[in-house]
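Hi F.,

I've been meaning to write this up properly since the lab meeting, where we talked about keeping a consistent format for the predictions we share between groups. The idea is simple: the sequence comes first, exactly as it goes in, then the structure tokens exactly as they come out, then a line or two of notes. No screenshots and no reformatting. I'm using this chain as the first example so we have something concrete to point to.
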Amino acid sequence: MKISFWSVGKNNEPYVKEGVEDFTRRISRYFKTEWNIIPQPKNSANLPELELKKKEGEIILQLLSKDDYLVVLDERGKQLSSEGLATFIQARANDSTKRIIFLIGGAFGADDIVLKRADFKWSLSQLVFPHQLVRLILSEQVYRACTILKNEKYHHK
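Output, unedited:
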């Protein structure tokens, strides 16, 4: 199984880049791992919120394969514990999922067409975080889940 992290927006800021790269390397010991930073549509600063979300959604849907298992990070999604995430990832591997995609939408979230395509909607927290930090938190939590699956010492409970 391959784990893909997709995020709409700019490349990682230096204060986040090192941590994201570190956790991505660590995850790669367990699963093939990749990042896809999806650029914002042209003239995005001049677009109304709904139109921007729609354009981002169209780009995302074009990049997806029909077999991809899409997890959209959404504030209205289901919250998981670290152990719950580990179980979730293991279930996808057991189902012979080829690629699981964790998607961080644009500044205004994911468009409804993307949410309808999602196989799972996941909320990291009821708090709102900057997208850059979400990338770091997401990669760390997926790494933590991998170590839980292998019963390694990283996760302390």
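Notes:
The longest strand covers residues 69-78.
The radius of gyration is 15 Å.

If this format works for you, I'll send the rest the same way.

G.
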